[in-house]
Design a protein that fits this description.
Largest sheet: 3 strands, antiparallel
Shape: globular
Bound molecules: manganese (II) ion
Helix content: 40-55%
Number of helices: 7
Strand content: 5-15%
Structural class: mainly alpha
Length: 201
């Protein structure tokens, strides 16, 4: 069963970017809803197996994909930001982003545009794609379908309106620009190293 992780910082730690009210609603209500939804789907599937009654399996599987993806993405999202974040990446992550996007500014511009333009209930995603051994920017518009299969998310930015509306209203590009002031490069670097080890790259 899934459990709701604590935020990796206090609710007011990102206040220059997102208020504690936004983080409280987003974590305690929205993210918690995905955790309980995923658990309800797992329970429903267990019950279906025990009864040998699979007529609702498609609906339960869809619910598991939707809520499970929401849980995974929100967990990545909290860790994609840090009160000590921002600036430029270093080391292997810097090298990898330059190889994949030409420059760090090239990545920034690409990620900001893709994320700001993702249609409602979307996500901006920096991911590692092991087949080509490169990073890609993805924008998921239906979050249970995360684009290139097998890509491993390194950083995500939530652009469902609940993530920013209380402070930024319809100014989503301002919210996406501000993401770079708190971006947690060290988390992405750690995930990149683990992803490459997994891929044998
Ligand atoms: Mn969200």
């Amino acid at each position: 069963m899934y459990t709701l992780p604590d935020l990796p910082y206090s609710k007011d730690a990102l206040d220059s970017y997102l208020s504690s009210e936004i983080l409280e609603l987003h974590h305690d209500k929205h993210h918690a809803g995905y955790v309980s939804g995923a658990n309800a789907a797992l329970e429903a599937l267990a019950e279906a197996r025990s009864k040998g009654d699979f007529k609702a399996v498609k609906a339960h599987s869809r619910a598991l994909a939707f809520h499970g993806s929401g849980h995974v993405l929100h967990t990545l999202y909290w860790n994609s930001m840090s009160p000590n974040g921002g600036g430029d990446p270093t080391g292997e992550l810097k090298t990898e982003l330059e190889k994949s996007f030409g420059s760090i500014d090239g990545f920034r511009g690409h990620f900001k545009a893709a994320t700001a333009q993702a249609e409602a209930s979307g996500w901006g995603i920096l991911a590692y794609e092991p087949l080509a051994d490169r990073c890609v920017v993805l924008a998921a518009e239906v979050h249970q379908q995360m684009g290139v299969q097998g890509s491993i998310p390194l950083l995500v930015c939530d652009v469902w309106e609940h993530a920013y509306y209380l402070r930024y209203q319809n100014r989503r590009p301002d919210y996406v620009n501000g993401f770079f002031d708190v971006i947690h490069w060290d988390y992405a670097a750690k995930r990149l190293a683990a992803a490459k080890a997994l891929a044998g790259a």
